[in-house]
Amino acid sequence: MPANFPEMSATAEVEAYNHVQRALRLGRYKPGDRLIPEEIAAEIGMSRMPVREAFRRLASDGLVVLRPNRGCVVAGLTVDELFEIFEIRSVLEGLAVRLAMPRIDEEEFEELDRLLERMERAGQSGGGDWVVRHQEFHGRICALSQRPKLIHQISALHVVIEPYMRIWFDDCNKPLSAREEHAAVIAALRSGDAHHAEQVMQEHVLGTAPLLAEFVSPSR
Amino acid sequence: MPANFPEMSATAEVEAYNHVQRALRLGRYKPGDRLIPEEIAAEIGMSRMPVREAFRRLASDGLVVLRPNRGCVVAGLTVDELFEIFEIRSVLEGLAVRLAMPRIDEEEFEELDRLLERMERAGQSGGGDWVVRHQEFHGRICALSQRPKLIHQISALHVVIEPYMRIWFDDCNKPLSAREEHAAVIAALRSGDAHHAEQVMQEHVLGTAPLLAEFVSPSR
DNA sequence: AAAAGTATTTTTGTATCCACGTATCATCAA
DNA sequence: TTGATGATACGTGGATACAAAAATACTTTT
Asked: What is the pLDDT of residue A2?
């Protein structure tokens, strides 16, 4: 008999949550689309109850909107909301960098360089997933902060903006300044000045918003 | 026939969510307590299903922990987690103050003074709810930032720490430096220096954590 | 043909039901 | 006495059933 992996047999609710979240991140559903529990339940072979429960969490994450008696629709971000999320990310990720600073050793710097390199490669050969690589870089720094709740909040925001990042990358197809700015973050971390590194990260995050917004609501 | 107020007849899930959240904020349930859907459902006259759904959102808020096949228990914060939340609050509320600055007029300053006064009165005559007044002060400044998502995140954190704030206030019974620090925040806002005001708020929030922690895990 | 009303279908919200997992506690062996 | 074993009660996860609300299609009327 094969070994029993308890994480394999997650509850149906978890399965439904992951399934829908993944589809939303990949942009398979578009803002305004109506999600019908029955359909999704059928897709993954369960009843609609666990799907309904998953919807509650997705709504709490801000990924969908639930209105009484009229179901679940995919949430869309206005340009203002997009800016707001980047504003929040800027201070949270700034904090993460500040906290990460004293925990970074030379080995870790090499890992960050590697991640930077991987992102660049993914950006050039459109095949690799640039958006995921980009997130991995940010995620690695957050992880270094050693703050579970902070990490969780930041990654929740990354999920919300992921579909927009994908549209952005698909359209403009060049990570533009991302490589330089990430390199600047690493440099700031190497400098040992925590306050400065926080500042650089804040500016990197905030600086991305207007570029991204241009693709969400073109030429305003 | 009376007018129909649609917000009065919310769904059962909303009712369950509010009911349990309120109980948690007031400290009626203690960390580690097991919440049995059947019991709660009976209390407010509904079946288990809406309660189960409410649990998902409460778990997403970090108020309870849901583990497969072993139900719902009230989440407790370790001292580390408490500090982490105050760290996050410090940058979020710092951001809120920075954004609020350009939107405050003289009338608003008077309102803040009034809220400060009300908090002080509630602190002296133990009757009024000091914790709520304290939150109202912070909430007002957040509201001035005009950032719905920021406001939402901050208030979610306030809910999580509310039970600990209550224990703190009940035990030490003096808001201590709160009045002075809030006054300092107002003063910083009046100064017109956004960066300085952000700094003052960050320090106020961070400074509260160690005092509070002392009551959560006494004399460590 | 447009508007209004009505019937029909779909979907949501909630309750109930059942199978399985977990905890509790008594029993028994060492 | 202690530790394993098994029976029992309880709770959880999920499916199904049913009522109420919305959305949709279909008349009817003008």
From this structure: 35
Among chain A residues, the shortest Cα distance to B146 is held by A84
Delimit the CATH 1.20.120.530 region(s) of chain B. 79-216
How confident is the model at residue B28, as a pLDDT? 96
Alpha-carbon torsion A161, A166, A172, A177, what sign?
A: positive
Beta carbons of B190 and B141 less than 8 angstroms apart = no
Q: Is A153 on the interface with B (CB under 8 A)?
A: yes
Long-range Cβ contact pairs of B156-162 (< 8 A, separation 24 or more): B156/B61, B157/B85, B157/B88, B157/B89, B157/B92, B159/B21, B159/B24, B159/B25, B159/B61, B159/B63, B160/B61, B160/B62, B160/B63, B160/B77, B160/B85, B161/B77, B161/B82, B161/B85, B161/B86, B161/B212, B162/B25, B162/B131, B162/B135
**Is the CB of A87 inside 8 Å of chain B's CB atoms?**
yes
The nucleotide whose C1' lies nearest the CA of B71 is D12
CATH 3.40.50.2300 for domain A79-216, yes or no, is no
Q: Does domain A12-74 have CATH number 1.10.10.60?
A: no
**Distance from the B80 Cα atom to the nearest Cα atom in chain A, whole angstroms:** 9
- Mean pLDDT along residues A93-117: 96
A6 burial via Cβ count (<10 Å: 0-12, 13-18, 19+) = exposed
Q: Where in chain B is the domain with CATH 1.10.10.10?
A: 12-74
Calculate the average pLDDT of chain A: 91
Q: What are the tokens at B163?
A: 């039970």
pLDDT, tens only, A187-200? 999 999 999 999 99
pLDDT in tens, A58-92: 999 999 999 999 999 999 999 999 999 999 999 99
Contacts of A84 in chain B (CB under 8 A): 147-150
Helix axes A148-172, A130-144, angle to 10 degrees: 160
Name the helix (H) or strand (E) containing B154. Answer: helix B148-172
Mean pLDDT of chain B: 91
